[in-house]
Design brief:
binds S-adenosylmethionine, about 220 residues, seven-stranded mixed β-sheet
Amino acid sequence: MRLRNITGSREVISLSPYVIREEMQPECAGRWKEIFGRNVPIFIEAGMGKGKFIHTMAKLHPEISYVGIEKYSSVLLRAVSKMEQEELPNLKFLRMDAEGIGEVFAPGEVDRIYLNFSDPWPKDRHAKRRLPSREFLARFARIIKPEGRLEFKTDNRALFDFALEELQTSPAWELERFTFDLHNDRELMQGNVMTEYEEKFSAMGNPICKYILVRKPG
Ligand code: SAM
């Protein structure tokens, strides 16, 4: 993303009613239902970018509470602008590195996790930074409830192959479904909401890979 250094974006974000203030983040763990003021499932997207996917999902599913996580305030700013144009009561944002997710959500507090077009970090020494790595899968396993789903989409075949391999060393997760060509998989396409990157890369003719994992009980 080329938006990483927009001047003043941190200040705008810190004043936005849609973004949980950074100093409040540790107090959120175990309190998300209270924050949204209702007892409904919590779905999150880690690395949401400009927020097109999560904003659309929140609009389509008012019965779910959504939390979008993005590392860069200059990118998050775009998601905030979208909310200013069309406010949704069931969507909140966190500006944070998803590495710290276990401090912001309590064990079993989350019902579903979306990873969409996660950064590939192509160098081997950066493998731990990839969101579908074993390290991140272990973090996600702690906050998701038993039987909860994690859905991952990407057009990057090397990243997807890596993600499938990481499952061998991620005992908390079971592979439920996968495809190397989502847009030609009628079943997995049901209810599919395109992300910003998905629109861009599928328009270029790239097949989209997707898997769905289930959190094993225990
Ligand atoms: N999910 C969006 C989509 O599909 O259009 C954006 C994809 S973009 C390639 C990946 C986004 O994830 C970037 O905005 C990046 O800043 C964010 N990101 C990468 N690693 C992250 C992390 N550890 N924590 C939070 N956000 C992260």
